[in-house]
Amino acid sequence: MRVVIAEDDALLREGMAALLGNEGFRIVASVGDAAGLLTAVEECRPDVAVVDVRMPPTFTDEGIRAVIRARRIREGLPVLVLSAWVEQSFATELMENGTSGIGYLLKERVGRVEQFLDILYRVARGEVAIDPEVVAQLFVRKQAEDALADLSTREREVLALMAEGLGNSAIAERMTVTDGAVHKHIRSIFGKLDLAPDDRSDRRVAAVLRYLNATGG
Question: pTM here?
Answer without folding.
Answer: 0.66
